[in-house]
Design goal:
The chain has 88 residues and is of the alpha+beta class. Helix content is 25%, strand content 48%.
């Protein structure tokens, strides 16, 4: 589903959130980043939080979980690629 997003929050290296509205559905998506280590190697743990609301559609009954899952995997893969590209 094509949609336009706008950034609603940025905390450098900690959090980014954006929102969009399409066909009465408003989505707010927040990614939180936590630095950690696995076997001594630095890693980043990413937490993804999504909130969908609509005053018209019963989203709790028709939440398109497989579609949202594919979108999430695509966004996280793109984010990983870009972070690795620009990392020092």
């Amino acid at each position: 589903v094509p949609f336009h997003v706008h950034i609603v929050e940025v905390a450098e290296r900690q959090r980014v959130a954006w929102a969009s509205t399409k066909l009465t559905v408003t989505a707010i998506r927040t990614f939180m980043f936590e630095e950690s280590h696995v076997d001594g190697a630095p890693v980043t743990i990413v937490t993804d939080h999504k909130l969908f609301t609509s005053s018209v559609l019963p989203l709790r009954l028709f939440y398109p979980r497989p579609i949202i899952r594919r979108m999430t995997e695509s966004v996280l893969a793109s984010l990983k690629t870009e972070c690795e590209r620009v990392a020092p």
